[in-house]
Design goal:
Length: about 220
């Protein structure tokens, strides 16, 4: 496992060494990072795993929700929609022409979207980045947009599921989920405001019935094995 991790790490370092990601456009960033076959994983949980790159750290986690912190102390709210994955639900995204940035993403037979909305009067932006049944939301300064997208892309491109494990965990409980359960994967777009952002945080704390303030200590770090 260590040899495999080292080889993939070298590949990523070569990529970033040859190309300055921060000089790329948002289109170029997503294309470069999502089209790469990212097989890294340093956080493994029941039924899924993903890679958290240097510069990010896992702050809190509970079941399929997590909060990550970056070097600028921005909080990234991360959600994994295992029900849609389990049901093989297809994404239906409509480009938001009123957004600062809005695009459907399709790479390696995987779909998603990136939508960025300007919020408030101080050049802050609300990022909604959904890909491969995972979604990030964050509220960052304009100068931090690209670094946030790089971080989020690294995690989302590495997200992998174990259907056999998820079958055991949720296979008999799918019908128990209420139809009116808050759909965090749906873009909020221009309906988002600086005030409602805080409402989202409060609501996400109880998304799918989980309390995001509780920490999960059962994290397996492959790099340490």
């Amino acid at each position: 496992m260590k040899k495999k991790l080292i080889l993939v790490t070298i590949m990523l370092l070569t990529l970033t060494g040859c190309t300055n990601l921060n000089n790329m456009s948002i289109d170029e960033l997503t294309s470069t990072l999502l089209s790469t076959n990212n097989t890294l994983a340093n956080n493994v949980f029941d039924g899924y795993k993903y890679y958290i790159p240097k510069g990010l750290k896992l702050d809190t986690k509970d079941e399929y929700n997590a909060v990550l912190l970056d070097e600028n102390n921005n909080r990234y709210y991360f959600y994994i929609d295992i029900i849609s994955y389990y049901n093989e639900k297809k994404l239906d995204y409509e480009v938001n022409k009123d957004a600062y940035y809005s695009k459907e993403l399709i790479y390696n037979d995987t779909v998603g979207y990136l939508e960025i909305t300007e919020i408030g009067k101080n050049s802050y932006y609300f990022i909604e980045y959904m890909y491969n049944y995972g979604k990030f939301e964050a509220y960052v300064k304009e100068s931090e947009l690209k670094s946030a997208i790089i971080n989020m892309s690294s995690v989302l491109s590495s997200l992998k599921f174990n259907r056999n494990v998820l079958e055991t965990l949720i296979g008999n409980k799918v019908l128990d989920y209420q139809e009116d359960t808050y759909n965090v994967m749906t873009p909020k777009g221009n309906t988002a405001t600086e005030d409602t952002y805080l409402e989202y945080v409060e609501k996400y704390g109880t998304y799918e019935g989980y309390d995001i303030t509780n920490k999960d200590e059962n994290i397996i770090n492959i790099e340490e094995n």
